[in-house]
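#data-curation
PF: Archiving a pair of folding outputs for the training set. Convention for this channel: one message per protein, sequence first, structure tokens after, nothing in between. First:
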Amino acid sequence: MKKKVLILVVLALIAIAAFFVIKGWQNKKDIVIGGVISLTGDNALQGKLGQNGMLLAIDFINEEGGIGGQKVVFESEDSKTMAKDAITAFTKLVNVDDVAAALSTGDVEFQALNSSVDKYKVVTMATICSGMLEDNRSPYYFRYCYNEKIADSVLLSFLAEKMDVDQMVLVYPNNAWGLEVDKYNSMFASKYNIDIVDKVTYDVNSLEQKAVALKIMDKKVPLVCARGFGSSFESVLRSLKETGFEGIVVGDITIALPGTVSNTKGAVEGAYYVSFDLNDDPNDLFTAKYKTRYVEKYGIEPSVWDAMSFDACMYLLKGIEKQRKDGIELKDALYSIDSIQLLLGNNVFSNSNDVEFNMKIFRVEDGVSKLVTME
């Protein structure tokens, strides 16, 4: 009896060992990509849309046979739109999931992960994020999002040359990204002879922004350049509306977020902003395929947010493909890509690890974004 029990125990141990051996062998066949995604917290709307785009990019690649015959697997962790949780998530993806590369969404995450990316030397593609980290960006940290310097140049040029604006109030959050907003807006306001009558900062941790709105109103300037995202930013815009501001609001892509439009009581109606958009050319079969597949998979229409994340993920995957084919480092592979089929144009990394987008001016009309013709 004891002998039979011993045999059963041995067989069980062999079966368990075989399971882990096979599991390990299977994992080696997969290329694991990590995602530090803001699925909850203040940036959850963009984060969830971003993850949608990333998952669809992985579907596209796997349907083509993966990378060198290896399947791509996505492991995501919720950053909760918090710096400490983003770092914890990234550390787990590196040390436990052994990711080949990673993606992240969100402004908070982009700023928080820089040191960790540099420490572990895991190439990471940030998207749906602002703040360029010009001075100390890790060489392993890439950003597939609009370039603030280019965006502000396009916006201020439009205000001066197409709208004859010569005065404005600049509003931005009291954080590191806000300092970049100040830097570039001041630079291009000077270039285009626009007087920034006042610079007003707001607390990103507060939902009470009436004092900020009153300070803006006190300047009696008909145009406000408002920058930021999330609840505090929405509160600034809402408070402006409530205090009777009837001038023009301008800014960047966050002005047209569905949440911003719906949560600001009409404050962004008529607002101008600098952004980019999905190609609507009916002859672009790649974008048409994406739009169809997106609706099929998620039951909603695609947006610039999921498209940006799709492109970021696709760029990263094509970089891994090139890395393995040419036997070079992944960061070098990303720089060496000079043409790739994406949704938002052939945007490449050339002079920096910050991609350069072709930016355009849009206007919110009846809650919908419409491209402004520059003629």
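PF: Second:
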Amino acid sequence: MSRITITLPNSLIDELLTVIDAKSKTEAVIKAIKDEIRTKKKKKILEMAGKMEFNTTADDLRHKDKRLG
């Protein structure tokens, strides 16, 4: 785990602690960072919708695995 020093406005930290319902500033910041990462990943996945083509059915994937034969 890395140890860093950052300067944040007190009002922002107070609001974060309230909104996230965290017990400590560290916990609140970690939760906020994880949430932001999750949001960005979800957005990327949603942007890919309709851009990928699958020509194998789920049934083929499930029952015709060539590694098992």
